Structure formats: structure tokens, C-alpha cells
Amino acid sequence: MTTFRELATSFGSVAEEYDRARPSYPDALFDAVERLAGRPLAGADVLDVGAGTGIATRLLAGRGARVIAVEPTPGMAAKLGAVSPELPLVRGDGDDLPFHDGTADLITYAQAFHWTDPARSIPEALRVLRPGGALAVWWNVKDGSVEWVRAMGERLGALPGYHGYGAVNRIAGHLEPYDLRVGSAVLRWERRITVDHLIADLTSRSYVAALEPAEREPVLAVERRELLARFPDGWVTEPYVLDLTVAVTGN
Known about the structure:
Blueprint: H1 4-8, H2 15-21, H3 27-37, E1 45-49, H4 55-62, E2 66-70, H5 74-83, E3 89-90, E4 104-110, H6 118-128, E5 129-142, H7 147-156, H8 172-175, E6 181-194, H9 195-203, H10 206-209, H11 213-230, E7 235-248
Parallel strand pairs: 1-2, 1-4, 2-3, 4-5
Antiparallel strand pairs: 5-7, 6-7
Helix pairs in contact: 2-9, 9-11
């Protein structure tokens, strides 16, 4: 059986595919983060935890944030450093943040909070945040209400470690013991990509990356065949649901 640790550390071998093929985020996400956090990103001290190859980190920096990427996986950190050498990068994870108390205005988890232990990562975030600071967590997932997305999920569901995260709030219950102002938003958006691009994205998913090559290739071949049968011109409009939660500390 594929273990949680094997899944969590599988990304290093697919950092190239991850950076090239994973979806970005719409501007509306960062508008919502600012609204729910009650402050602009411009000038904010931000830690982007589980930064991966820096997809969200670069966008946060583009909004004027003073952002530090925090990434535990060597391969992902190396790719981030190669693509965005101008961004500060610290090796670490959310369960044990290598930062002093009260040093951040915002801590973000872009598609990464599920790799933490909430009993440790939430207190760590609260320790590092300044009074009035915010923890912003979001998941960007393919819209399972669309038939072809749902069918792909049903096929992939047989893989060891498949998690099929839906666009549902996966942190709210863990926040209840703390004195926080919690807000949320759900956004819908889409991107137009090729079948090859979608297959590269799929290659970067932990439950595929953790497979041995002899197991992985048949899985990808089936998905390519099914996608081309559905989209014979080789282009796919891929729908996403983006689930955001922002928890603001007291002043």
C-alpha cells in the first residue's frame, strides 16, 4: 500500500511536470483573500507554505507581497529556485515553521494544507502570525459536476493513494477550537489546454507520481485515449472549483 509519506514526497521526481502543467490561479482568488483578510497583499509579509515550484508564490509577489516560499521537498525547492531565483526560499514544512513568533501578516497554503497535521500546523501558523494576521488556505480542483471530469475520477479511483479532493472546506472543523474570524469563498473558473498538457498535469499528481513507471504508463495511456475520444481536436476546456478559507486572528 502506498503510504502518506510516499505520496507526500513523490513530487520531487515530477517537479518539471508540476511547474509546467499545474493550473495557475485567477485574480479573483487574491481579491477574495484580501477581502476576507481585511488588508491588501501589497506590503504584507507572507509565508507561502508548501510552495511547490512557486506557482502561487509568484502571483503573491506580483500583487506586491513580500513573500517567502516554504517548501520541504528537495526536487520541488530546486525547481522553484531555478525558475524564480529572485524569490526567498526556506526549506521547511507547516508542522514546524522555521520562523520566529509574530513575524508574518499572512500565511498561505495553496493546494498544500492536506499534507500537514492540523493539530500542529494551525498552532504553528498562529504562533508565527502577527496580531490581526490571517491564515489563507485554498484548494483548486477539477469540477466533478462535469461528466468527463467525474468519469476520469472514477477511473483513477482504483489507484493506491487516490484522494480525489473535492472543492469542499477541509479546514473549517479544525479551526473551531481557536478564537478566529473565519470566512470563505468558492470560485469557479476554467482554462483551455491541450490533452498533452492535461496528461502532464495528471503525471504531477501524487497518486500517479508515486507509481512505478511500469504501472504509471498504462494509466496515462488509458487517460490519453479516453480524452482524445472525448476531445478529438486535442483541446480541452478544463473546469475548476476553487475553495478558499481565511482565518483572521484577533488584534
